[in-house]
Amino acid sequence: MKTEDLIAALAVDCAPAPSRTVSRTLGLGLALGAVLSVAVMVLWLGVRADLMSAMSSGPFWMKFAYALSVAALGFGLIERLARPDGEGGIFGPMLLAPLAVMTALAIYQLWGVPEEVRMSLMLGATYKICALNIVMLSTPIFLGLFWALRALAPTRLTLAGAAAGVLAGAAGTFIYAFHCNESAAPFVVIWYTLGIAAVGTIGALLGRSLLRW
Amino acid sequence: MVRSLAGDGAAYATLLRRLNGHLRAYYLRRLGTSQAADAEDLLQETLIAMHARRSTYDTSRPFTAWVHSIARYKLIDHFRRNRRRAEEPLDDMEQLFSISNSNAVDARIDVDRLLQRLPQKTRRLVQDVKIRGLSTAEAAQKNSISESAVKVGVHRAIKSLGSEIQDEES
To answer: Which domains does chain B have, with CATH numbers?
Structure first.
């Protein structure tokens, strides 16, 4: 095909492009994945029995605040990296802020208890499955975001994959928090972060091959 | 590009043609003229990719940066596919838009414009001898004048064009 013909053909197919496509497409991928993830959480893991009473406690909201702030930053990051000329900018380093706050809170809690109790604050009762469950609940969201990214135009594939992983991990954590009845900050900062980081790493590893266009 | 996104096909065609020149020069420069066919493939692939993903352009950001990122991505992808190492400097954005092989076209347009200023008969002589490359004898025969008349006509025409160009530049 001659390039001149190609240009003519492309120019004819020039329907008005919808605005805000990037955030819409990503939002759609995120939402579809989240619906599936919530279904898995409710049907398989089950919402924690004491949800109503827990809602009046601080630690309950602390977990959501942590997951939400990471997710919001992750979305800002991926929204930029989904564009060809996108740089992560301030959002990448900003991810350290919620982590720093949580770590400070965890250290403060560990400081205030006798030494024998510290280990249980860090391990809780569910440390063996926490990160694994987060990875599992993140998977549908992860797939949704990768699907969205493939329709967009990331040029830094590893970074974009990592951002998708962090966002999926944080969203999965948010959903998992409805099930998980751990409430200690040290537990949250260790195992929740581990889950999010694991999904982020998977995203970085898969980005280069799955996000090519 | 903003008008193209709003669905203005004519503006879009103009834009694509301009990009075409810039991109071809960009890829030819990177791949070398020995791989002109690859460069042409890459060029087409890039145009299609830009078309399919044109909604990822954020109108508040420089359009050239968006184009350059896609062009560069496609180039690196090409190297990767061909198992060659791609070491692309990040700061070569000006180059994409500073060189263009549309110069030849521009030069042609300039020549045509200058020729318009000559009287019609003289213009035909110059075109025959200097652009189409006919010999003096052929031109003389074609325009049914003597060979020396062709020589003199062409010589005067070139001289007057020369002084016009100098006037324009000064």
So the answer is: 2-99 (1.10.1740), 103-169 (1.10.10.10)
